[in-house]
């Protein structure tokens, strides 16, 4: 036997082993916990009244496993709500994955033969799991708990509803607003009140006035937040990136092209995508020297939870908050957040129902919001509230608990946020949500980086997204 | 085939007489090897065969039904723009990373081989330390180091008058940036070369010096041939590892919930990352299996070519 012929089988085995040692599966998907430093929250009694007040009146006991949520690793909002549930249902022994939601982990948990009973996952991922029968409809559960679906904001409700059935209970409700750095505007000789945020020429002019370059970019004028917020810019033009039912890609439409072109023009006025992104990546986003405190940004659309970050880390930084508006001046904002769902294979549907309805019940939220308010007061920090998807809870939280009378600019900001809650839209429950997002993200990035022109990129993305939706809907 | 042992004719296997002793030893050898063999069958060969089958199906792990679709997944790959892009990105990385890392590792090993005394252990440890750093940590570290605006790499380049590029954003520079990052972990290869260098008989150098050979000639005609086995081994292993590049790149460019960072385009889309996303984000496990088998075939072809080429360049002591 020659050396070569002896080597072949050995090498084949070596390669088999090495090829099988592919990715270890360390998915770095970001944790699905809320980025406001407030993880998924908790509060009081289980639902029973039509408004979702807590009651604890359901018959629930036994063990429960919740995936995508942390108690030990959670903040006061998370802990308070779980504590409320435990008080009301002492016979339920609940354990948590103590991690944020990520697809690979959830998939593994489902395949383990001991599937989680309940899951806390982002609403923009719901459609993928509904289409595959992983989650169960909640009509019976909500009837049992006496929970009126109309307590949830319509935008959030639509994200978890397929064929008239709700498959999850919306938890947080993150909307976007313009956050304006007053110091930057003053420095540029601009008044936030005089900028017409419905007029894109006006936005472009403000961008050019605000950008600062001292031998390198030192202040971004206006960050359009692409590709993340593309759908919001498209809405401002009266378009959509995907149909309401999540079954038709609308990426190859004039409104999308115009929005991408406009976003690109804003970035180019800041020196182009390379300099823009590199500079943005240097920010101390969650620290005391954040981009507002350090005067590194003029204005940008941002989730409202960032107000908490600013209030906590740089309370002296002066900001103005404006609603994101369409070209007619009407508020149009993108919302998202997590939601609670029950898996189809749960062994304990009663306890699962009791748990998820309790976690989003009005009284539960109110208890959590009060706990946070107490904590902030003790720390001498302003409390900007908790933005829930339960409109009745929000009424109580922002009317009775949040008191920003000593912080007029924050008070005004919170008011702006609340005014946009009712009309916010969300990503619909598409069976191929992840692939759609990939197509959208890739298309925008290819345009921003100059790898493709807008028409080509959007045409490719539209075809890819539609193929993926059609395949997933089988 | 038979052999005569102590006047008796016994069967022989591979030239070795098949005596009761041999049988017993073979049996015990198999007993001791069995954990590995069983592990290979259950955890590697079995899943591989299963994935081969899945590559001919539309398997979605969240759906109960599996439909056999023949070669559809493989045909779909031909029309998938991202397959071509990711293959190109991966090949680009491999072509530059493997020789560069080998050259740098050899250089470092040669230096290490000359360091004696107490410092030798320190340097060996220092070179190897980056290899024990988790890949995700390395990715995060280089996210800071390679920042085009205030990263240490560009600050260093600025000291010598070079305006550094946007390593993490500019599609032209993303792959060179990743190659630069990958050189951080050459420690493994350094240690292998170092061990090989220590095994080169010193008499060979003494003889060469007596014959008037200079440093370059000694390196070219003694060192390289004598460590060619190690060079070949690292060539094969590093090539396979490069074709499977995943963790660091995923951390830097795909770790955000929204997908890759703004502006990065598809320059950082490596083959295994695309495979992973198909399997665990899009739940197209059948398609991902087909991608995995194509990668396996690519690796096999490259390795066979390397092995064939090695016959001319690799010196095996004792042959």
Using brief descriptors, characterize the structure shown.
heterodimer; A: 474 residues; six-stranded mixed β-sheet; 18 helices; 13 strands; disordered N terminus; B: 319 residues; mainly alpha; three-stranded antiparallel β-sheet; 66% helix
Structure explained in plain terms:
The complex is a heterodimer of chains A (474) and B (319). Chain A has 474 residues and is of the alpha+beta class. Chain A has helices at residues 3-20, 76-88, 103-111, 126-131, 139-145, 154-159, 182-187, 200-210, 230-236, 254-268, 273-280, 306-313, 349-359, 362-379, 391-401, 408-419, 433-448, 454-472; strands at 62-67, 92-96, 118-122, 161-162, 165-166, 169-170, 174-181, 212-213, 217-222, 297-303, 319-323, 335-336, 338-342. With 319 residues, chain B is mainly alpha-helical. Helices cover 66% and strands 4% of the residues of chain B. In chain B, strands 1-2-3 form a 3-stranded antiparallel beta sheet, with no helix packed on it. Chains A and B meet through α1, α3, α11 and α17 of A and α1, α5, α12, α13 and α14 of B.
In short:
The complex is a heterodimer of chains A (474) and B (319). Chain A is of the alpha+beta class and 474 residues long.
Architecture blueprint of SSEs:
The complex is a heterodimer of chains A (474) and B (319).
Chain A: H1 3-20, E1 62-67, H2 76-88, E2 92-96, H3 103-111, E3 118-122, H4 126-131, H5 139-145, H6 154-159, E4 161-162, E5 165-166, E6 169-170, E7 174-181, H7 182-187, H8 200-210, E8 212-213, E9 217-222, H9 230-236, H10 254-268, H11 273-280, E10 297-303, H12 306-313, E11 319-323, E12 335-336, E13 338-342, H13 349-359, H14 362-379, H15 391-401, H16 408-419, H17 433-448, H18 454-472
Parallel strand pairs in A: 1-2, 1-3, 9-10
Antiparallel strand pairs in A: 3-13, 4-5, 6-13, 7-10, 7-11, 7-12, 8-9
Helix pairs in contact in A: 2-13, 2-14, 5-13, 9-10, 14-15, 17-18
Chain B: E1 2-5, E2 8-13, E3 16-17, H1 20-54, H2 72-78, H3 81-114, H4 119-128, H5 135-145, H6 152-159, H7 171-182, H8 187-198, H9 202-210, H10 215-226, H11 228-243, H12 247-253, H13 271-280, H14 285-313
Antiparallel strand pairs in B: 1-2, 2-3
Helix pairs in contact in B: 3-7, 3-8, 3-11, 3-13, 5-12, 11-14, 13-14
